[in-house]
Amino acid sequence: MKNTLRQKIYRTIMLIVVVAIITFVVTTILIYDGSLRYIVDPTASGSNVSKKLDTLLSTVTELIDQKYLGEVDEEELIDGALKGLVDSVGDKYTEYYTKEDMENFNAQTIGNFIGIGAVLQGDYEKEEITILSVIKDAPAEKAGVKKRRYDTKSRWYRI
Question: Counting beta carbons within 10 angstroms of the beta carbon of residue 134, is it exposed (0 to 12), middle (13 to 18) or buried (19 or more)?
């Protein structure tokens, strides 16, 4: 009796595995049309915006190559185009970072933090530095630093 129960369980498991494999193969063939062009060529998806953008970027880069007399840094050209594309979305939380920008961002937000133990924020337009918070038991708190704004023009504190 135990043997026949084991055989039934084994057959059921094998049937499930075979059906899963067949489903995977058929789905892969239908999605990729027998090739991997969608993975290799992202513009092959048929997006109208992608095709227009590709055509316009090709035209503009050709015009720059033909008409512009100075040297063009290709990396800056590409980064500028991508930054403009992302900025055009209109979402203040969506941003394009170059490789260098991303490295700087990671350096500022990840890793070891050292300093006096105060969180600062600078406002270049108003020329102000704001102490947003003081970390408990840090040197800044022990020295009596409080949350406030410092005006760099007139050198006085706003509490």
Answer: buried
